Amino acid sequence: MTMAHAAAEPYRRALAMVGDSEIRVDGICHPRFTAVADAFACNFTTHNEAGASVSVVQDGRVVVDLWGGIADPATGRAWDRDTVVVVFSATKGATALCLHLLAARGRLDLDAPIADVWPDFAAHGKGRATARMILDHSIGLPVIRARLKVDCLTDPDYMVAHLADETPFWEPGTRTGYHPLTMGFLAGELIRRVDGRDLGDFFADEIARPLGLDFWIGLPEAREPRVAPVIVHRPVRDVPPSPFLMAAREAGSIQNLFVFNHGDWAARGVNTRAGRAAVIGAASGVTNARGLAGMYAALLAPAGDPLGLGGDRIARFADPMGATQMDATLLQPTCFGPGFMLRMDNRGRPGNPDSLIIGRSAFGHVGAGGSVGFADPDHGLAFGYAMTRMGPGLLLNPRGQSLVDAAYRCL
């Protein structure tokens, strides 16, 4: 799928010097969307952005495609047009599309028991759990109780065996609790059993390559020179802990198991060749803003449904399936469609929970540190943002939200 530029103009702006490197923003921007370019530049000058990209598609035409900053602080390499980075949980939207594509082709019934194709999964009260419960985070397996090995996330067979043998934290389908990492292994095993290919190959063959996306779940070695290393966020001292972090101090809690029982991929492996080659369907996607926006643009008119998902199915992506005032994992209000995050406006709530302020018909997904991609059918809008320096919070942080807000102001 190719997208035209909507009379977008070349954009080049020098911002500042960081050490011996001049920070520059390059790309294209339609005059109507200069507020996005201004917000993107502001992130570098006032919000400690290191390297990043932002892309906006409206009505099938690219109106913003910007990149800038430093891709690799160790070498001073600049972020260029084709730089890519790990986008963490923004990967989940891509993984969800793989399940929906199999369903659209009649090869997977999202409402049938998972045990129909994965018999061992029925153990410990999971016999009636369905694929749809994976998508809406209600299946009851947000974490694993058993102590996991250090390289667990790069060993899908190991994770899948533990998930089949795990007792759910609640009766599947009765409660919503975000599944930060297990969602990808559950979905990936379903895809492997139904299709024969692993998640990474299926996504590459059926979605990324047909749409012309620089987007991988399991990065090929040839693409390594284009990768920007992730700069891991270090929490600021003396900031009151969130309810999530408070609960993480309690041994055996969902929050504690997530923080302390998922190996070392997020802290160390993410910036290694092995870590980026790993097929982690909830977290290891490698792309840039153009890849995220391009994937979601394919779900909007006038793209013409190039994946063959069907208009009715796509229309239901924005239907709330798992809305709750107390997410069992994040301990704040959340709202999920079938595989996608929906608008979560938690501004002004006690405890200052995080938000994702997008349109009321929009669907997409954030990634740890602030990456985000989404589609908004009401406005014909697709959006992507990817960056190297992770920010705070569980959902969208101020850098990403400022870009989303600017895009909506331009409509």
Automatic annotation (TrEMBL):
InterPro entries: Beta-lactam-related, Beta-lactam/transpept-like, Beta-lactamase/esterase. Signal peptide: none annotated. Pfam families: Beta-lactamase. SUPFAM superfamilies: beta-lactamase/transpeptidase-like. GO terms for molecular function: hydrolase activity. Residues 46-392 form the Beta-lactamase-related domain. It comes from the Bacteria. The keyword Cytoplasm does not apply. Keywords: Hydrolase. Gene3D superfamilies: DD-peptidase/beta-lactamase superfamily. This is Serine hydrolase. It comes from Tistrella bauzanensis.
